């Protein structure tokens, strides 16, 4: 019977892939068996999904084969969906088998949070995966085709995007850029198209300075986006939404970007969770579980101001690196390292050639911020795949 410890990583998102890559560098031969479980054979860039969803970029720019990112002599890749996590038995139930573990990393990513809004889970589309993005893109094109074939029914070219955080703002910016081309292709008057961005909070883009938020909203308003701030979606219907104000917006396309919760498998496994997120300790471990680490959207960490860190790619990547370090430390009976988030800055895209950014105490907007966004994206490509991946997937223009 092998005494080599078994490490199982669930999910190959930002946190999971960084954990796997750091482990394969740090571990010696036969020091541990590492298995990475993912439902797809590819890793995709969640922060890029708004572009292919709107149709302004190729899906191929948003994903890369996991086999190109890991050494399969050191990491065993299992393509399967996780059905259940049994912590008492130290087992993972997959759709086609079972895995046992000594150390577990839960990096399953998040799920859309609907906040109990009736109809949202049934009628709204979400930007959460390659397949969902493909569906959104085809759905939008189909609505333009239907508009001309159904007596110019206005609801086909009305678009409602719920949520004005990063995902919502970046998506409406790309959609606004795509509309002129769609109108030309389908012979639709651009002035007839409406993009509504609905947000329950009083302002968009939390975390950005008011002047940057104002810049973003002014720019997108000029591109044709209508903002409805400080009003929640009360109900989602097959052909539109009803707002808390009582207003009804007829639309055949509703995109929900209004919130992320942790994976439901975490709650089902018996962890104490808030909206699917577990408050991990300073070493990224689940409460009372020294052999289970939770990172990414499923983890809850409190910042120095006493508020939870937002679930971003940046924090998931840093957690992945720290998690790998602590796994190696556990195997070698060494002291683990406390996780400390280092904020490298925040950048939001506002469509082609436009963006806003905060790096340290400095703020940027317009073309400069857009270039910073490309630098951030290419830095990630370099971290996980070196110069070859930057050249293959990077957006230079």
Automatic annotation (TrEMBL):
Pfam families: Pyr_redox_2. Its cofactor is FAD. Keywords: FAD, Flavoprotein, Oxidoreductase. SUPFAM superfamilies: FAD/NAD(P)-binding domain. Residues 6-320 form the FAD/NAD(P)-binding domain. Belongs to the NADH dehydrogenase family. This is FAD-dependent oxidoreductase. It comes from Paenibacillus odorifer.
């Amino acid at each position: 019977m092998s005494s080599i410890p078994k490490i199982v990583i669930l999910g190959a998102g930002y946190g999971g892939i960084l954990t796997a890559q750091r482990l394969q560098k740090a571990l010696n031969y036969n020091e541990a068996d590492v298995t990475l479980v993912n439902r797809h054979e590819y890793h995709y860039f969640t922060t890029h999904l708004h572009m292919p969803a709107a149709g302004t970029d190729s899906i191929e720019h948003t994903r890369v084969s996991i086999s190109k990112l890991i050494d399969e002599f050191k990491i065993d890749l299992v393509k399967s969906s996780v059905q259940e996590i049994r912590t008492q038995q130290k087992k993972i139930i997959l759709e086609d088998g079972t895995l046992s573990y000594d150390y577990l990393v839960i990096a399953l990513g998040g799920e859309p949070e609907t906040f109990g809004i009736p109809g949202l889970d049934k009628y709204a589309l979400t930007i959460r995966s390659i397949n969902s993005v493909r569906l959104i893109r085809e759905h939008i094109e189909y609505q333009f085709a239907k508009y001309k074939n159904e007596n110019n029914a206005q609801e086909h070219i009305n678009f409602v995007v719920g949520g004005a955080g990063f995902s919502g703002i970046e998506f409406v910016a790309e959609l606004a850029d795509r509309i002129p081309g769609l109108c030309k292709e389908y012979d639709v008057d651009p002035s007839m198209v409406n993009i509504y961005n609905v947000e329950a909070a009083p302002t968009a883009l939390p975390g950005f300075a008011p002047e940057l938020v104002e810049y973003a909203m002014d720019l997108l308003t000029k591109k044709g986006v209508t903002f409805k701030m400080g009003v929640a979606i009360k109900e989602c219907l097959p052909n539109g939404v009803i707002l808390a104000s009582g207003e009804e917006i007829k639309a055949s396309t509703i995109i929900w970007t209004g919130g992320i919760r942790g994976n439901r498998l975490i709650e089902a496994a018996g962890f104490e969770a808030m909206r699917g997120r577990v408050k991990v300790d300073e070493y990224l471990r689940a409460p009372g579980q020294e052999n289970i680490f939770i990172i990414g959207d499923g983890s809850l960490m409190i910042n120095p101001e006493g508020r939870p860190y937002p679930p971003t790619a940046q924090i998931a990547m840093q957690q992945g690196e720290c998690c790998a370090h602590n796994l190696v430390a556990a195997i070698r009976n060494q002291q683990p390292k406390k996780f400390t988030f280092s904020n490298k800055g925040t950048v939001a895209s506002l469509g082609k050639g436009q963006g806003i950014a905060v790096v340290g105490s400095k703020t940027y907007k317009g073309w400069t911020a857009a270039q910073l966004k490309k630098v951030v994206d290419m830095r990630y490509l370099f971290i996980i795949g070196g110069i070859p991946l930057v050249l293959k997937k990077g957006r230079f223009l």
